[in-house]
Amino acid sequence: MEPVREARTLWRTAVDHVHANLEKSTTTEVAADRARVALQILEEFPWDGVIKGFKGDHSVSSLARWFTTEWLNTDHEDQMLELLAADLELGDGSTSTIQTTYFVHALAQAYSNPEMYRTGTGFRWLRRLGEAFAMHKHNRLGAIANINDNHWIALTIDCEAEVIGYGDGFRRTVPSGLRSHLDWWLHQHLGIQFQWTDLPIPKQTDPHSCGILAYFSLAHWFDSQRFPLPNPTAAVMAEERMKMFLRVVEHGGKVYMLATYKCEHQSN
């Protein structure tokens, strides 16, 4: 019963947050409509199970975290990456690719076991990815990476420009380990030393918005016109998390979207 009790507590916290936003005098009518849709979904969803429509087995209980100021975890980041890939229509024949949060973790493992990387079946997918860059089947890569187990950053590779992009809302320098791992992997397949540069990203002013900011930095890098960078205020960050919750649910096939939300969502 303990997991159910924890999920119920988080769910009730999410509902309280939505009600609090509805009661604010600054809430616009569009935002209020969006909040009412979110409440309807929260009332009808179970507390456990698996979210439909995504590659990973993401727990339904994690949906409630979108409404809190808790740190977004790997499930949330991978969901946003999958949605971004769909938005950009990155199919099998695309020259651009978006990798999950596991990508940087795999690079660290490969760097620590170079001989196994060259022959091991567990690294076959990573070798094929490197070979795709060498053969010019891919020329751009985007990912979101975890730093120190408590911070999300955006990471990009542009093979044509021979540049690696790094987007950190805290404006910190690139960790030496990450730099070494990625430089080594690219050199294995391309024999080129890439230059590192900072990606445009809003400055983070709280301890929990790194996941959303990293997503926007990455999306902006792929298509700056379609994905403008948000103002990183507390209100805007909370609103973007609610929007993302609705997108995740909609992607999973639930038909809960009101007409007003659909029109606003399609226009943005």
Structural notes for this entry:
InterPro entries: Papain-like_cys_pep_sf (IPR038765), Peptidase_C48_C (IPR003653). This is Ubiquitin-like protease family profile domain-containing protein. It comes from Mycena albidolilacea. By secondary structure, the protein is α/β, with parallel strands linked by helices. It folds into 2 domains: 1-70 and 232-268, no CATH class; 89-222, 2-Layer Sandwich (TATA-Binding Protein), CATH 3.30.310. The chain has 10 helices and 5 strands. A 5-stranded mixed beta sheet has the order 1-2-3-4-5, with helices on both faces. Helix 6 (124-134) crosses helix 7 (176-190). It starts with a helix and ends with a helix.
Topology:
Elements: H1 2-23, H2 29-44, H3 74-87, E1 96-98, H4 102-112, H5 114-119, H6 124-134, E2 140-147, E3 151-158, E4 163-167, H7 176-190, E5 195-198, H8 210-222, H9 234-251, H10 259-267
Parallel strand pairs: 1-2, 4-5
Antiparallel strand pairs: 2-3, 3-4
Helix pairs in contact: 1-2, 2-9, 3-8, 4-7, 6-7
* Known CATH architecture of the largest domain: 2-Layer Sandwich
Residue-averaged pLDDT: 89
**Helical residue percent?**
40-55%
CATH classification class of the largest domain: Alpha Beta
Order of helices and strands: HHHEHHHEEEHEHHH
Identify the overall geometry: globular
- What is the CATH T-level topology of the largest domain? TATA-Binding Protein
Portion in strands: 5-15%
Domain count: the total is 2
CATH homologous superfamily annotation of the largest domain: Ubiquitin-related
Poorly predicted runs are 254-268
Report Rg.
Answer: 20 Å
